[in-house]
Write a structure and sequence with these properties.
Blueprint lengths: L1 H26 L1 E5 L4 E6 L5 E7 L3 E7 L7 E8 L14 H12 L4 E7 L5 E9 L2 E10 L2 E8 L11 H11 L3 E4 L5
Antiparallel strand pairs: 1-2, 2-10, 3-4, 4-5, 5-9, 6-7, 7-8, 8-9
Length: about 190
Amino acid sequence: MKKMLIILLCVVLSIGGSALAENNAKTHMGTVNMNGMFELHCSLPEAYTLSEIDNTEMQYTGVLSTENSQKPMMYISIAFDDLLAEVGRLNDLDEESLEKIEATFREENEVDISYRETAHGTKLMMVKEIEDGVSFVDFYTIYKGYEVEIVLIPGAEAENQELTEDQIQMVIDFLSDLDFVETAVQQ
């Protein structure tokens, strides 16, 4: 009987421990409020924190970083663009409009462009480029006329200035739950 209670206790503790780990991952959220228009939500990678740099009525800038300067950093930029004022999401654009946006990324450097979709159905343009021996990956989307960009760069003290596939995958994984949430206050 005692053996059965010990086994049952171990099962309960292992389930509870994994539930705690799952809840911990889900509660480590990054939230950006765009002046009552909408909020951007996503789980942050482990050990990363979101720090606001600037927040005005039409623009937000922040950085996702960790204390480990070997790990990559991510800059977040959200800015309203009058030319996109009528665009609800990147998903809504036709091929010709997408090509025009892609051309803005191709103006200065050779880039590799692909597309992903989040679990909430948000289309993301992923732009890989190398400039002066340093690699960057730009994740781009649109929401209600706002251009949303998350730029992944190597850490300040990274030995190699090229991003690894694992580092890029880390961002793809955390952006998979990227969600735009309507706020109660609308301007």
